[in-house]
Amino acid sequence: MHYFCAVTNKKQDMKKTKIVALGDSITKGVVLTDGNNYSVADGNFIEILRQEKNLEIDNFGRFGCTIHYGHQIIDRHADEIASADYTILEYGGNDCDFYWKRIALNPEAEHQPKTSLEAFRTSFKALIERVKSLGSHPIILSLPPINSRSYFDFFSRGIDDQGRKNILGWMGGEVEAIARWHENYNQALFEIASETDTTIWDITHPFEGYEGDWRTLICSDGIHPNSLGHRLIANSIMTEANF
């Protein structure tokens, strides 16, 4: 009987921590190549965690995903989440984005982000509760910073000069308004974590505290971390995590 217990405990010790990752293209590991094409980087932060920490990770990140579609992904992968020790939740970067071509054409109209800040808060809290109800521990991933100038130049490609002026005027004449708006959603993540007693892995401040220029860790589109950025994310998580 004692021998059987010893073997059982040893097997339990060898069991890998299982993680499900839900999010947008950052979780998926998408980077912008030199040819201005998007592809999934081999050295994305999920893959680094999988290999260097010997974790079992199901990555369900999707390009362009908002918190609304995050609920649909939970519906689709409820069984995987139920069997996972932890579920990473990474949303907000697409939710705070606007339909820029509409603004370029009609800057005087009222324009809303893809998900309002209030709706984002409510929906994210509901997402957390759904993960908990399935028996997994949710972990929020904060957002990397945005390079506003690069992002403006990227999304306004194909928009004529007048359209670009319209967008800039709508933003109050300051490109950095993009980063400030994005930060509202990121700050909401920290507040949600506190209000729901949910773990948050802070990858924002490691970017901002990078010893060089943090913008060198972001692709030329201004929003996706490059391979160096993914390494920083992975290192930050491995510093904070208990596995």
Runs in which pLDDT lies below 50 for 5 or more consecutive residues are 1-13
Structural class: alpha/beta
> What shape does the CA trace take?
globular
How big a fraction of the residues is strand?
5-15%
Mean pLDDT: 93
Distance between the termini: 30 Å
Strand order of the largest sheet: 4-1-5-6-7
Q: Count of helical segments?
A: 12
Major sheet summary line: 5 strands, parallel
Structure notes:
With 243 residues, the chain is α/β, with parallel strands linked by helices. Helix content is 49%, strand content 12%. The protein has twelve helices and seven strands. It is globular, with a radius of gyration of 20 Å.
Summarize the structure.
This protein has 243 residues and is of the alpha/beta class. It contains twelve helices and seven strands. Residues 1-13 have low confidence and may be disordered.
Question: Could you outline the blueprint of secondary structure elements for this entry?
Answer:
Blueprint: H1 2-14, E1 18-23, H2 25-28, E2 30-32, E3 38-40, H3 45-52, E4 56-59, H4 67-76, H5 78-82, E5 86-90, H6 100-105, H7 117-133, E6 137-141, H8 148-155, H9 161-170, H10 177-196, E7 199-201, H11 204-208, H12 227-240
Parallel strand pairs: 1-4, 1-5, 5-6, 6-7
Antiparallel strand pairs: 2-3
